[in-house]
UniProtKB/TrEMBL annotation, chain A:
The chain crosses the membrane at residues 12-37, 49-73, 85-109, 115-134, 146-170, 190-209, 221-241, 247-265, 285-302, 365-389, 395-413. The keyword Oxidoreductase does not apply. This is Cytochrome C oxidase subunit I. It comes from Niastella soli. It comes from the Bacteria. Keywords: Membrane, Transmembrane, Transmembrane helix. The keyword Electron transport does not apply.
Automatic annotation (TrEMBL), chain B:
It comes from the Bacteria. InterPro entries: Fe-S_Maturation_MIP18, FSCA_dom_sf, MIP18-like. Residues 17-84 form the MIP18 family-like domain. This is Metal-sulfur cluster assembly factor. Gene3D superfamilies: Fe-S cluster assembly (FSCA) (3.30.300.130). SUPFAM superfamilies: Fe-S cluster assembly (FSCA) domain-like. PANTHER family: FE-S PROTEIN MATURATION AUXILIARY FACTOR YITW.
Length: 423, 108
């Protein structure tokens, strides 16, 4: 009887490897950033910055999101994951593809290594989209709509990226390479990351805060504004070229973002769990970074100073996306590992609870180190001060080490049971 | 005679309910009784049927909670068949959490 309605969590191999490799990529990202400190005062189209950005968006952001997505889609749509096998294949293709792309950009190996890396990433995105589409089924919830649209935008983004990689070696795109790069970046940030995070948070934040909101319409407005603004931006830029009209489309996207934040604020107001833990504080800080990024946009459009592009990128990649992942990892991974290791032992022997699987104190240290590193890095780039940037990047490496250590603590957790050692 | 059996069963039922206080919701870190997840328990000389719900119908921790219920009851009542029936009506809500559960969750 208990098997009728109860969902089966996806197998560990379809989820946990994403978290493990994502954590390692975060360390790689921070080390590459440290080695590229002097590049952070120049133009963003440089081999090292391209390598850093792709390790951030693919190896770190997308890697963790794939893992979390495979775990959460069944929860959101109340169906089992369509294909754990496709999920596992997408892990291998994404890991290899991201690794190859980052290496190719760092050494600027224009040609087949870069194209192969791009093709592998496209394969991973396609497999992810197929899994998301079939898992969602007839699910028509707001959260699911965002997750499906974000998967489609991811596919669009990585295909455009692959075309750009081909264009570097075999030029064929009639538009300026840098202009297409901007479209690629916009589709990735607004289509993939913003919509995915909107969808997932619309489900998870009420769950974690034990809160609710009746203002579902806000999510509907968010969906139309985020998608509408992005389509208008891309269409106008493609047919008429990039112009200051872009700021108007960014404003539409901004309205969609504010609608989503208002929904979450309503959930926060109507929560029954009043205590806010360190993980949720990470999330709160990440929202501040996202809203700050919108404030930087007029500076980007109003001047030719390339540093604002780097400040914007820092707020989005290192502030917003990283902030969310740093917090949410310890809201999801311990439960995934616990479910895998202790589910069947629950009630049989004394087992630790998921919150005992990681070191809470380290999450607190991680928060302060992350805040310090972020503020210093934004200041360093804004004032073009390499010394400040280097100090900030050392703090970033410490943040990454705290994070990866704590992830390791969760992944390799062991307890003593009556019968011996439990793995 | 029937009264005596009923009394014995009632005592056993109370014992079974008390045992369920040991099953924790791993996510909320509060036992399932104080969370109000258990709706009914039918105790017969041969079997125990627990009718319960989950906080969400595809709760990722659902399987662990159901296993926990079966495990604690099987340990105490070795000669009974343990069954768990999951129901979604009435739908679980925060109002079903006991005063002790609210205290543990830090709900004001």
């Amino acid at each position: 009887m208990s098997d009728i309605n109860i969902g089966k969590a996806p197998p560990a191999k379809a989820v946990i490897p994403f978290y493990a490799i994502g954590a390692l990529f975060f360390v790689v990202l921070c080390v590459l950033l440290f080695l590229s400190a002097s590049d952070l005062t120049g133009h963003y189209f440089s081999p090292h910055i391209l390598a850093v950005v792709h390790s951030a968006v693919l190896g770190w952001g997308t890697m963790i999101i794939f893992g979390a997505g495979y775990q959460l889609m069944p929860v959101i749509c109340e169906r089992d994951l369509y294909s754990p096998t496709l999920a596992v294949i997408s892990f291998y293709t994404l890991t290899t593809g991201a690794g190859l792309l980052v290496t190719s950009f760092w050494f600027f190996w224009v040609g087949w290594p870069m194209i192969t890396g791009g093709a592998l990433v496209v394969t991973a995105a396609l497999l992810y989209a197929v899994n998301v589409y079939h898992t969602s089924g007839q699910c028509n919830r707001h959260a699911a709509n965002f997750i499906i649209s974000s998967a489609a935008w991811l596919l669009f983004t990585v295909v455009l990226g692959l075309l750009l990689a081909i264009n570097l070696r075999f030029p064929f795109i009639p538009m300026s390479h840098i202009d297409v790069l901007k479209l690629h970046a916009h589709a990735g940030l607004v289509g993939w990351f913003l919509q995915l995070i909107t969808g997932v948070s619309a489900k998870l934040v009420p769950m974690f805060l034990l809160g609710k909101s009746e203002k579902d319409k806000l999510l509907k407005y968010a969906f139309y504004c985020q998608n509408g603004g992005l389509v208008l931006f891309l269409g106008d830029a493609y047919f008429n070229g990039l112009s200051n009209r872009g700021l108007f489309y960014e404003l539409i996207i901004g309205v969609g973002t504010i609608a989503w934040v208002l929904y979450l604020a309503d959930v926060y107001r109507n929560r029954v769990r009043k205590k806010t833990d360190w993980q949720m504080k990470h999330t709160g800080l990440s929202f501040i970074c996202l809203l700050s990024a919108f404030l930087v946009l007029p500076l980007l459009y109003g001047s030719n100073d390339k540093r604002w592009a780097l400040v914007l990128g820092t707020l989005l990649f290192m502030g917003w996306i990283t902030g969310i992942i740093l917090g949410k990892t310890f809201k999801t991974l311990p439960f995934i590992v616990w479910n895998n290791k202790f589910r069947l032992l629950n009630g049989k022997v004394k087992v630790p609870m998921p919150k005992h699987l990681y070191k809470e104190k380290l999450v607190q240290y991680q928060f302060w180190c992350f805040l310090f590193a972020l503020l210093l890095l934004v200041a360093g780039i804004s004032f073009a001060c390499v010394l400040l940037i280097r100090v900030a990047l050392m703090a970033w490496i410490i943040t990454a080490l705290l994070y990866v250590y704590n992830v390791g603590v969760v992944l390799f957790y062991k307890i003593e049971t009556n019968g011996g050692r439990n793995k | 005679m029937e009264d005596v059996i009923n009394n014995v069963d009632n005592k056993q039922k109370l014992k079974a309910l008390a045992v369920l206080y040991n099953v924790m919701d791993p996510e909320l870190f509060v036992n399932i009784m104080d969370l109000g997840l258990v709706y009914d328990l039918i105790f017969t000389p041969q079997s125990i049927l627990v009718t319960m719900t989950l906080s969400t119908s595809h709760c990722p921790m659902g399987e662990a909670i159901v296993e926990g219920v079966k495990n604690v009851l099987a340990e105490q009542f070795t000669d009974h068949v343990i069954e768990v029936e999951l129901v979604w009506e009435p739908k679980w809500s925060f109002d079903m959490i006991s005063a002790e559960g609210r205290r543990q969750l830090g709900i004001v």
